[in-house]
Amino acid sequence: QVQLVESGGGLVQTGGSLRLSCAASRSIFSINVMGWHRQAPGKQRELVARITRGGDINYADFVKDRFTISRDSVANTLHLQMNSLKPEDTAVYYCSAVVGPGFRDYWGQGTQVTVSS
Q1: How far apart are CA 9 and CA 111, in angstroms?
Q2: What pLDDT tens digit does each residue of the chain (117 aa) get?
Q3: How far from chain centre, in Å, is Cα 19?
Q4: DSSP codes of every residue in the chain
């Protein structure tokens, strides 16, 4: 089991930056996969970026070269640095974790990111 708490969302203008954080209640190296997803109004939740325990990283095509996922093993925190933000990046961003041999999914409560044009 793991609890995830996101922070860092807010309102930013087009072209601006935000850094999201996700604090985990257990060592992030005990978690199989951690990631960021987002859900815009009226749309399905979609993967933004993820990182495996071994350090393999995947990004959605729409955020490549703009967003960077990273982790702090001391603070057990996952980050998402978002640069060159666009209005279409507006969504609730969720932190996720896949834990244990059963690969159970856990989610944070979400943090709102709004990009104004």
Answers
A1: 5
A2: 999 999 999 999 999 999 999 999 999 999 999 999 999 999 999 999 999 999 999 999 999 899 999 999 999 999 999 999 999 999 999 999 999 888 999 999 999 999 999
A3: 10
A4: ---EEEE--EEEETT--EEEEEEESS-GGGEEEEEEEEE-TTS--EEEEEEETT--EEE-GGGTTTEEEEEETTTTEEEEEE-S--GGG-EEEEEEEEETTTTEEEE---EEEEEE-
